[in-house]
Design goal:
Alpha-Beta Plaits; elongated; 2 helices; single chain
Length: about 80
């Protein structure tokens, strides 16, 4: 018997895709199919959880930019 899994097409740049693949490699619970360099099919019921984990990883790796910081402007 054929079994179908409902999925969502995700389009992203290759750097984000590599992070998503890294997240999925831990438990294989997100990705249904890796289509090409910028497209994935992700389990429909896992999209929100994947977004939260992706946001968490991006915050860990990208430093916060403080708009009120004058450290670069103090140099004359």
């Amino acid at each position: 018997m054929v079994r179908a899994i409902k999925g969502t097409l995700v389009e992203c740049d290759p750097s984000i895709k590599s992070i998503i693949i890294s997240i999925d490699s831990e438990d294989n619970e997100y990705i249904i199919e890796d289509l090409d360099e910028s497209h994935l099919v992700v389990k429909d019921n896992m999209v929100a959880k994947l977004k939260m984990e992706l946001d968490r990883r991006l915050k860990e790796n990208v430093p916060d930019v403080d708009d009120d910081s004058d450290s670069d402007r103090d140099v004359k």
